[in-house]
Amino acid sequence: MINFNVPPFIGNEIEYVKTAIENHKICGDGDFTKKCNAWIEQNAQTKKALLTTSCTHATEMAAILCDIKPGDEVIMPSYTFVSTADAFVLRGAKAVFVDIRPDTMNIDEKLIEDAITDKTKAVVPVHYAGVGCEMDEIMRIAKKHNLYVVEDAAQGIMSTYKGKALGSIGDFGCYSFHETKNYSMGEGGALLIKDENHIERAEIIREKGTNRSKFFRGQIDKYTWVEAGSSYLPSEMNAAYLYAQLEQADMINENRLKSWNSYYEMLKPLADEGKIELPFIPKECVHNAHMFYIKLKDLDIRTRFIDYMKKNGVYCVFHYIPLHSAPAGEKYGRFHGNDNYTTKESERLVRLPMFYGLKESEVEMICDKIREFFKNAR
Known about the structure:
Aspartate Aminotransferase, domain 2; Aspartate Aminotransferase, domain 1; 2 domains; eight-stranded mixed sheet
């Protein structure tokens, strides 16, 4: 069986975790955490990056920094993971879902402005599959209406929009280092901060509401509780595991892109015949090969396709169930406008195996099985 995902492993992870243990520093904000933060800051050219226990928690921190309160509204796509909405719903906000673009599966930037009310506080673009949303227009709308922009770049590390790193364009950006992501620490994430005026408060929120970070920098002689916060620091062992991969980020990225390009080249004849649709990458975007998906005609064909591939030793999966159709989505959100594409496109999409170390022979075998499916389909 070819798995859908295999968590990345380079080789130095165990050595680095052992080093953290031997240094008697396994809680948060040790040397490896600081190295990860610095790497992200340099790679994304952002004012500050703070490693967190998950992308969910990074987004929760962003919601706090945006001063989201009960009654506020936050605009986002419905085609996303639950954490995108959860972070704001936990603060008492209502999620306002708008339709997606069928080409990139990203939020349709042309529909955002019509969804804005006097209660709107933020816009949350989700960079699906590591392909950037139309950020120039989203930032223009946000500036016009004085809204925060929180980029859900869970899948977007190493991707760019017009040369700018995803996650670095809005007020805040959120990365994921879950085991399914391009770089992993098991569970983990990072908050990217664009405006240095938010840094001190972010550090306080992340450190249980204390000014402990200033204490460790020698800026104060003792630390104390100064604001409501929580514990968003990951273990130093997790950070050590991640840093081994960040050191080899380009190599991992190139390996994934090679697999992505092989998929595209091998499957293009099927797309030319109209049997599948391939991913679309806008010219202003550079992607990170986070996933390779194809779109089939409808839900029935997708169901039969996934079953066929599994029986032939290939584990393929669909993705999000649109949030507005979920019980919690109906309770905590509303869909603004028409659902022209969100549900329809989500029912057609299927993800193929994609991970660091996927062999070229495995990509060829997967594509052979896809061709067989359509040859045998009636």
